[in-house]
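We were asked to recover a plausible sequence for a given structure. The inputs and outputs are reproduced exactly as logged, with field labels preserved.

PROBLEM: sequence recovery
POSITIONS: 382
GIVEN STRUCTURE:
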């Protein structure tokens, strides 16, 4: 299902049977309540564990860069764009021609679908996975999306995806979200490497590394190593997660120059504003903030795991700033009950409707969430 479309339908509170065909009518109504609001938006007590954001907020260095950058905000951001692109390229050992900036990494995912999908591509995605790529593909007539369930170890089913990509003359676009959203699980990088090495050039790999910085597992490494050699590999990254800038909107792709050029043709001109460009530059130098984000995430995850262990609720090993755990009950009821307690938790990810995705906030926020979960257990709801 298309996430943005789903959200619009929920917001409109209409036509939900078609937006959520897998739900009964009563459940659909349950999921249509608006988010709790206080003066100026969400209530300040509202615990936002629903969108995998960085709970630390904007890095202080980025705040300062934004303030300093305001004097130039009346100008087009040509200079800061060039500087940031050069800096990202240097960081990855490539040239600026290899970098495609986007209004969030979601825009570069969209560019990849438009540029590489062609008129009649097969788009192969895992199920469940982050919804944006299948959503963008669905909007293009002629693109055919095929969903392949994750393996029992929650990795992408590389063998099955590989099989589906064979014998096709039309372009095949394979979306590999690693770590995967919503499961926070890994697909071993060695398996991806082996497939890339033997794949023909009309099989494109779109590797989404939005949560790259959180991973500490030796079986995982970036797919950036293929960029110089292979025009059919695109890696995407974002400033929305470890860098704490989801509301600022900036992401990028790294690809070989001719592939990057094809993608850029679908970008709007100056798609990143002056303030986000200078803030992103500050973030790249702020290794302290990144370290702090990681440490806090690890500590807060332990608080979550402790509670889930105590309650005997199964969870998937998390390699990111969110986790998927079993709720032993009705998911929409669970979401609504949490919402009544001012806690926003992850949306449904069919077909994993027995699980909830929870974003990892600050340790004290996870304590608060854990208290509610324990209360739910006492009530017999989980
Ligand atoms: C796997 C993945 N990719 C991409 C995005 C989009 O991020 P943004 O557009 O904020 O860079 C998200 C956001 O949650 C995500 O989970």
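RECOVERED SEQUENCE:
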């Amino acid at each position: 299902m298309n996430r943005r479309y789903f959200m619009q339908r929920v917001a409109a509170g209409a036509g939900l049977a078609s937006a959520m065909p897998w739900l009964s009518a009563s459940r659909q109504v349950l999921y249509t309540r608006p988010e709790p609001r206080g003066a100026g938006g969400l209530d300040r007590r509202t615990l936002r564990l629903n969108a995998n954001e960085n709970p630390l907020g904007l890095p202080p260095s980025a705040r300062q860069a934004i303030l300093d950058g305001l004097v130039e905000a009346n100008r087009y951001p040509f200079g800061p764009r060039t500087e940031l692109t050069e800096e990202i390229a240097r960081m990855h050992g490539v040239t600026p021609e290899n970098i495609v900036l986007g209004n969030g990494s979601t825009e570069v995912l969209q560019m990849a679908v438009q540029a590489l999908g062609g008129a009649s591509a097969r788009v192969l995605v895992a199920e469940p996975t982050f919804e944006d790529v299948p959503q963008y593909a669905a909007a293009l007539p002629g693109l055919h999306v095929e969903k392949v369930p994750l393996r029992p170890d929650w990795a992408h089913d590389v063998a099955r995806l590989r099989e589906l990509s064979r014998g096709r003359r039309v372009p095949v676009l394979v979306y590999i979200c690693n770590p995967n959203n919503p499961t926070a699980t890994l697909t071993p990088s060695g398996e991806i490497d082996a497939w890339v090495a033997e794949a023909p050039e009309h099989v494109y790999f779109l590797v989404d590394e939005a949560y790259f910085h959180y991973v500490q597992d030796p079986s995982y490494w970036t797919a950036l190593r293929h960029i110089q050699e292979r025009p059919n590999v695109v890696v995407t990254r974002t400033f929305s997660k470890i860098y704490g800038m989801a509301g600022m909107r900036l992401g990028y792709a790294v690809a070989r120059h001719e592939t990057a050029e094809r993608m850029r043709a679908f970008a709007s001109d100056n798609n990143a504003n002056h303030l986000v460009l200078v803030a992103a530059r500050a973030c790249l130098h702020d290794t302290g903030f990144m370290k702090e984000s990681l440490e806090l995430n690890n500590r807060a995850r332990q608080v979550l795991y402790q509670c889930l262990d105590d309650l005997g609720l199964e969870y998937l090993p998390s390699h990111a700033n969110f986790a998927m755990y079993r709720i032993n009950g009705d998911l929409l009821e669970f979401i609504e009950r949490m919402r009544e307690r001012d806690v926003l938790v992850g949306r449904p990810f069919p077909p994993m409707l027995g699980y909830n995705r929870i974003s990892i906030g600050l340790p004290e926020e996870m304590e608060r969430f854990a208290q509610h979960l324990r209360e739910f257990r006492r009530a017999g709801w989980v």
